[in-house]
Design brief:
Uridine Diphospho-n-acetylenolpyruvylglucosamine Reductase, domain 2; alpha+beta; Uridine Diphospho-n-acetylenolpyruvylglucosamine Reductase, domain 3; Alpha-Beta Plaits
Length: about 450
């Protein structure tokens, strides 16, 4: 830009001219995230290198009343990092240092731009374990994980991102710096502000440091895959495993459509003559793992499984895990537009919900693959469509409305790990109710009175 506007020059003074993007061809890459059919160009993209620069950017934006949308790697699936019109996109990828690994306190301090896999590897080098493992962990950033309260394949046993956040450094919209939490295992002084920012989707503050809890690495791990002729058999197997007081670290499922797409994509040797596949993994003390695997295999056979494959070694276990981790990528090859959604119901209602999703797809004449976290009731109905076909996209919207309404009716939620963002904000009032919506709006108004942080997300 030969003659930038005054506010662009001010941004350049804060971070350096090379760290501010304003040309349209550069901005297009930041006009969308991982959510299909959503596009909005920002006014500028800025790459701060430290907390001080984030503070200065927010002071400027607050004075100008210009929207700020925080972005990591842009892997979100609910439009959470979609720019608002005229917005500054604040991208945290330069802030990617792991600042400390503390084995004495089992903690790790990191900047928000570090990827999830980098954090997991840093913990592993210290003989420790960071369990949250979203499907996009190789490219998603920890700041985005915290902002969306991401889940993952190990959520059944180990929980989600919220369960591992011990402290946060947050820049408020005014530029004021807030630290909440610490390395103490016990701390009940005052409100738990840390939990307020987890899952806030960039609407309350910008995360600049994250203090994470680590745990000892499990000594052993075993993986097995069971196939079934009916989804109900797989669901009953899951119910029986939990009823037997077995909590595997992974208990995932794929339906027939997803199995065929994965095998065509990854060639991991999956059987194709089945309606459902369960990926099960146990970890812990070797003796306990051996017992759990034997009991899970027996339960699967009692429920009429067609076959079981137990991984012989870590290499085969990784190959079997690929069957689940590559599900979205495999489905995305089938149609021009792949819409991966996220609904969660109580485990007892999962088989009913899967049947409902299949019925919705039939009634609306849509192609769908369903996979997800059967152990915690979180399923990912994935519609294979074409956003250029407006009539079909209308049917997709109707189908998703029915799916979310049914999830709520069954005592579930509209999102288990992807967040609300733009994609689901129309469903939030029905799920949350009037009182909860009022409290959330008032909290947001108090922390961001000028309304500059990620406007239009979660609710208007």
């Amino acid at each position: 830009m030969s003659n930038p506007s005054p506010w662009i020059r001010q941004l350049q003074e804060i971070v350096g001219s090379e760290q501010v993007l304003t040309r349209r061809e550069d901005l297009l890459a930041y006009a969308y995230d991982g959510t299909p059919a959503l596009l909005q160009e920002p006014a500028a993209v800025v790459f701060p290198a430290n907390t001080g620069q984030v503070q200065e950017i927010l002071r400027l934006a607050n004075t100008l009343r210009r929207p700020v949308v925080t972005r990591g790697s842009g892997t979100g699936l609910s439009g959470g990092s979609l720019p608002a019109p005229g917005a500054i996109v604040l991208c945290t990828l330069r802030m990617d240092r792991i600042l400390e690994v503390d084995p004495a306190n089992l903690t790790l301090l990191t900047e928000p731009g570090a990827t999830t896999v980098t954090i997991a590897e840093a913990a592993s080098k210290a003989g420790l374990f960071y369990p949250p493992d979203p499907g996009s962990m190789r490219i998603s950033t920890i700041g985005g994980n915290v902002a969306e309260n991401s889940g993952g394949l190990r959520g059944l046993k180990y929980g989600i991102t919220r369960n591992y956040v011990m402290g946060l450094e947050v820049v408020l919209p005014t530029g004021e710096l807030l630290w909440c939490g610490n390395k103490c295992v016990k701390d009940v002084a005052g409100y738990s502000l840390r939990d307020l920012f987890i899952g806030s989707e960039g609407t309350l503050g910008i995360l600049t440091k994250v203090l994470l809890k680590l745990i000892p690495a499990p000594a052993s791990k075993r993986t097995l895959v069971a196939t079934f002729g009916a989804m109900d058999q797989a669901a009953q197997t899951v119910s029986d495993i939990i009823a037997a007081r077995i909590i595997p670290c992974t208990l995932e499922f794929l339906d027939r459509t997803t199995i065929h797409c994965v095998e065509d994509y990854a060639h991991v040797g999956l059987p194709l003559d089945c309606e459902a596949l369960l990926l099960m993994e146990s970890d812990g003390h070797p003796a306990v793992v051996a017992e759990e695997v034997a009991r899970m295999e027996a339960i699967a056979r009692q429920n009429g499984c067609l076959g079981i494959r137990v991984a012989r070694d870590d290499a085969e276990a990784a190959q079997l895990a690929t069957a689940r981790r590559s599900a979205f990528s495999a489905l995305a090859r089938v149609a021009p537009t792949t819409i991966l959604e996220d609904a969660t119901v109580p485990r007892s209602e999962l088989a009913r919900m899967i049947r409902f999703v299949a019925d919705v797809a039939r009634r609306h004449k849509l192609r769908i693959g369903t996979f997800g976290h059967m152990g915690d009731g979180n399923l990912h109905p994935t519609f294979l469509t074409d956003e250029r076909n407006h009539e079909e996209m209308h049917r997709v919207e109707l189908a998703f409305r029915e799916i979310f309404e049914e999830a709520i009716r069954l005592g579930g939620t509209i999102t288990g790990e992807h967040g609300v963002g733009v994609a689901k904000k129309a469903f939030l009032p029905q799920f949350a109710g009037d009182a909860q919506m009022r409290v959330m709006r008032e909290l947001r108004r108090v922390l961001d009175p000028a309304g500059i942080l990620n406007p239009g997300k979660m609710f208007d």
